[in-house]
Amino acid sequence: MAQSSQPMDPEGPTGKLCSWIDSVQLSDIPESVQIRAKYLILDGIGCALVGAHLPWSEKAVNVFLDIETPGQCALFGWDKKISPLTAALLNSTFIQGFELDDWHSEAPLHSNSILLPALFASFPVLKSPVSGPQFLLSYLVGLETGPRVGNALHGSYILTQGWHSGAVFGPSASAAAVSKLFDLNAAQVEDALGIACTQACGLMSAQFESEVKRMQHGFPSRNGLMAALLARGGYIGIKKVYEREFGGFLDMFSKGNGNDPQFKIDELTAGLGSVWKTENVKLKPYSAMAATHPTIDCIRNLQEQDKEKMQDLDNIESITLEMGDVSYSHGGFEVQRPLTSVGAQMSCMYVAVTQMVDKEVMPQQFRQDMLDRDVTWGLVEKMKCKLNKEWKGFEQQAELKFKDGTTIQAHVVSTRGVDPELSNGEIVEKYRGLMKGVIDDETRDEIERLCLGLDGCDDMMKLCELLGGVTKNPIA
What we know:
The chain is an alpha+beta fold. The protein folds into 2 domains: 13-283 and 432-467, 2-methylcitrate dehydratase PrpD, CATH 1.10.4100.10; 290-412, CATH 3.30.1330.120. Helix content is 47%, strand content 7%. The protein has helices at 13-23, 31-51, 55-67, 84-95, 111-122, 132-152, 157-160, 165-181, 186-197, 218-232, 249-254, 293-305, 307-311, 325-331, 341-346, 348-358, 374-380, 424-434, 441-452, 461-467; strands spanning 73-74, 81-82, 103-104, 281-282, 316-323, 383-387, 396-402, 407-412. Strands 6-5-7-8 form a 4-stranded mixed beta sheet. Strand 1 and strand 2 form a beta hairpin. Helix 3 (55-67) runs antiparallel to helix 4 (84-95), helix 5 (111-122) packs parallel to helix 10 (218-232) and helix 8 packs parallel to helix 10. Belongs to the PrpD family. This is Putative immune-responsive protein.
């Protein structure tokens, strides 16, 4: 008896999502969304090449090279090839390697580190070349799926509960994207999502001293790829995985959250095919966790408003950072010396003083020698973070008191990269800036040309091969 090509309950939330993933075509997606997606891909690739030879990236690669035989999948920034699942894991680790990558403003996840590694690692599995339009459509399916799953769990709220949101929402995104690339039918997509969701997890305590924070989006990238591979081979996954009452994805990850409703299952399919979540993918101008960006903006504003006072760091008596719940729980923790680069990039306190001292927050600020500067820690000791329960989103304020009795303040309700978001031109500028000293100009330009010209690409292996050369460590 032939298996059905339809999901178990086509009218249920899971079934509707699976049917859309199966049926959507590139022509259904507005041209503006498609164009933006190409620039998002370029940004993700730039982040990967920057991250490929950071110390924690090399450590992870060497572990797997010691235990695996050579495979068919390129490691970005290396002259090595490895198995598909490990390539997805490690290439994701590179993209997330330095807090430079994208994030979603509604449901926090870093889509490029989930989608690009899984899709590139799929190429050797397929019998025929993957065209640029095929790749772009599959990527967009992932961009649309991940935030919808996240919004069903109240978006950023899950961060306040100690879950690493992207590692929870991400397996669905990866499985959806690869399922589309594999041309799975709606029933197979349901299997893939069911297999992916049972692998979802991520502890936000990774943000302190661990290196595993860099890898935690690699788990959903790898696991979503594995889920789609299993579904492609006929392996049966959890049916109706999002709405199941006992052990269902949304029910389990929302238990005890105190929200009413506990989860918002309608968000899974709200506006599907007409409201484009891709439009809320944001790109970072700073090399730090997104919730720290309004902190940096506050300090930047003060530096522009009162340049003379902000240069007199010795005259500062105290610094107070006031912020809402998400930023406070995610980045408002107290930091102590010595600090790892992970902890530094997650800390509102640390990035604030970094902006004060260096007037920028980019990869070079997180070299080991930069993490232990007396001038930085002297300012950290004068700082405290304060919770404002009334503030939502990215609203923050910085107040500096000086020994001469004066006080200056800066207040933001959003952050650069969100409002205003980076333009396509600024994304190209960021990419070119990141590539300085990492790859040669000729390779840089060819990668840019292929990413922005995906419509005319007949074989994505051309781009993949460019990503496989050896890159340099930007913080060496």
